[in-house]
Specification:
Rossmann fold, 3 domains, binds fructose -6-phosphate, seven-stranded antiparallel sheet, alpha/beta, Glutamine Phosphoribosylpyrophosphate, subunit 1, domain 1, eight-stranded antiparallel sheet
């Protein structure tokens, strides 16, 4: 979703803003713009298209080398992507420029009022109302003006504001949209995410809802909504700058696929000590777990798919009922949450608007919230009773890979921990599961190394296809959902995931000569049944690519191509299966000439509902 960068320092702002915006490209965008303070005047350039297009425009139509400015990448919500709807937006009197990430839900009524007062609008955006409100509300005190304006807004926002009356500063405020502050030497920043500032500073503040920032080159002051100064500890970003850069790889997606062994190791190994699972930061007691009548897992997209694997896993090993919900559905279906409900929220970014809203809903109903989050200090982490972080490092590619894998590992650890705490698992199974969870990083590495060339070839061979079906039973079906999403989102091949036994209840009519069916056949207890389903599609002309555990020779006879994964505990196979499926999605996208890291219409952090 939209990206914001603000800079106050001693160097020309344009270069810093464009560099920062380029680090936020992964968020997905369709337009870009900047505004700088040229003396007491705001100079703005903005347009539909990529940052490279804006850079060219600035070369032919430059702005002054002013040392203070704001920049924005827009992911269109209100009004189509065009030059006028791009940010920044200016007040009618030219005194204010604003960039915004989020959605102003009451913008229509504000706009109506402003039009009745004679205000003229240039764009179709919700954001423009903010610029005009700033003009109307201006008291001479810029901080108070921004605060009063924010109080009139419903919805979500991170705002960066320039004002000609206070040309040495940027004012920022956030509510339910991410915003960080970067603290440099003689220069300071605001940004939607850390990579935007990382080439200039590692010192940051995370902002909480309703906090305001006043930023100059010499300092940063943070205020509460009541305009009381707030002291915040300075956080130091410990990850390597290279973690947020391609580091020689052609795309972030393949880099992140290859990083999975390390990400898994970093997530798993600190959680197993002396042969026991140690869940740092988990305050849930044995008594709490005994009193838990059910678990809800709530998430969006791939994180939701993790939830489906986790449901099969937790119900099998811990015998606690688990429901999995899409966050966007959960809130509106009267979920039965009470103080005996454990709600597990899964989110890489920790900022997904639907997931955050579902969390708040569950909390207000008395549910106990445990979140699995990758971004430290994110909104979901802040709102939860307990947080377990996945240590995947920054995930930049829009299509998640290493975050999915580490979320899955975290859910295995949680499920096994609950089973052990409740005495629902015998010691031998507990030890066997732990031993195999520990092996996952190494086995994922093996899967990547053994299959990389073969998958690349397969992708080239199948690059012409327009439809694919992924089938599997039980845990294999859960992985099929993620595998199918990985293919469609980056390569634009239409694909669907089906429970293998369900296919003949309708969808099998779509299978014809040459249809690609990817069969996930690693769930050993149901292998025979999956083989029957493979034969059903094969006999109708499907080309079958099967993912099976090594040694499952029975699948070979009915498959055209086989991808092998090493043997593991039957409940852990999803971790090994998903990796070649991610690679298939990636290489198909490459073979079809798609923009892998920035798939059309998608955004990394979905901060609007
Ligand atoms: C797909 C993908 C998305 C995210 C979803 C949730 O590859 O990345 O489906 O999984 O948007 O995002 P987070 O985990 O940040 O809440």
């Amino acid at each position: 979703m939209c990206g914001i960068v603000g800079f106050a320092g001693n160097s020309p702002a344009v270069e810093v803003l464009l560099d920062g915006l380029s680090k936020l490209e992964y968020r997905g965008y369709d337009s870009a713009g900047i505004a700088v303070m040229d003396g007491n005047e705001i100079k703005m350039r903005k347009m539909k298209g990529r940052i490279a297009d804006l850079t060219k425009k600035l070369e032919s139509d430059p702005v002054a080398p002013a040392p203070i400015g704001i920049g924005h990448t827009r992911w269109a919500t209100h009004g189509k992507p065009n030059d006028v709807n791009s940010h920044p937006h200016m007040s009618g009197d030219g005194r204010f420029a604003v960039v915004h990430n989020g959605i102003i839900e009451n913008y229509a009524s504000i706009k109506e009022d402003l039009i009745a007062q004679g205000v003229q609008f240039a764009s179709e955006t919700d954001t423009e109302v903010i610029a005009h409100l700033l003009e109307k509300n201006y008291t001479g005190d810029i901080l108070e003006t921004v605060r009063n304006t924010a109080r009139q807004l419903e919805g979500s926002y991170a705002l960066g504001v320039l004002c000609t009356e206070h040309p040495d500063r940027i004012i920022a405020v956030r509510k339910a949209s991410p915003l960080i502050v970067g603290l440099g030497e003689g220069e300071n920043f605001i940004a939607s995410d850390i990579p935007a500032v990382l080439s200039r500073t590692r010192k940051i503040h995370h902002l909480n809802d309703n906090e305001l920032v006043e930023l100059t080159k010499d300092g940063v002051r943070i205020f509460s909504e009541e305009l009381q100064p707030i002291e915040k500890p300075v956080e130091t970003v410990t990850w390597d700058v290279r973690a947020a850069e391609k580091d020689g790889w052609p795309h972030f997606m393949i880099k992140e696929i290859m990083e999975q062994p390390t990400a898994l190791h970093d997530t798993i190994s600190p959680r197993i000590a002396d042969g026991e699972i140690v869940l740092d930061g988990l305050s849930l007691t044995k008594k709490d777990l005994e009193e838990t009548s059910r678990i809800y897992i709530v998430a969006c997209g791939s994180a939701y798919h993790v939830g489906i694997v986790a449901k099969y896993f937790i119900e099998k090993v811990a015998r606690v009922p688990v429901e999995v919900d899409l966050a966007s559905e959960f809130r509106y279906r009267a979920p039965m949450v009470d103080d005996k409900t454990l709600v597990i929220i899964i989110s890489q970014s920790g900022e997904t608007a639907d997931t955050l809203a579902a969390l708040k809903e569950a909390k207000s109903m008395g549910g106990r919230i445990l979140s699995i989050v990758n971004v430290v200090g994110s909104s979901i982490a802040n709102e939860s009773d307990d947080v377990l972080y996945t240590w995947a490092g920054p995930e930049i590619a829009v299509a998640t890979t290493k975050a999915y894998s580490t979320q899955l590992a975290m859910m295995y650890l949680i499920g096994t921990y609950i089973a052990k705490t409740l005495g629902r698992i015998d010691d031998a199974t507990y030890r066997a599961l732990l031993a195999d969870i520990r092996k996952l990083p190494e086995q994922v590495k093996e899967v990547i190394e053994k299959n990389n060339d073969f998958i690349k070839k397969l992708a080239e061979q199948f690059s012409y296809i327009e439809h694919a079906y992924y089938i599997g039973r039980n845990l294999d079906y859960a992985v099929a959902m993620e595998a199918s999403l990985k293919l469609k989102e980056v390569s634009y091949v239409h694909s669907e995931a089906y429970a293998a036994g369900e296919l003949k209840h309708g969808t099998i009519s779509l299978i014809e000569e040459g249809t690609l069916v990817v069969a996930l056949a690693s769930h050993m207890p149901l292998l025979e049944k999956t083989i029957s389903n493979i034969k059903e599609v094969k006999s109708r002309g499907a080309i079958v690519l099967t993912i099976a555990q090594e040694g499952a020779t029975a699948v070979e006879d009915c498959s055209d191509y086989i991808l092998n994964i090493p043997a593991t505990h039957e409940l852990l196979a999803p971790s090994l299966q998903v990796v070649p499926m991610q690679m298939l999605g990636y290489y198909m996208a490459i073979a079809r000439g798609c923009d892998v890291d920035k798939p059309r219409n998608l955004a990394k952090s979905v901060t609007v509902e």
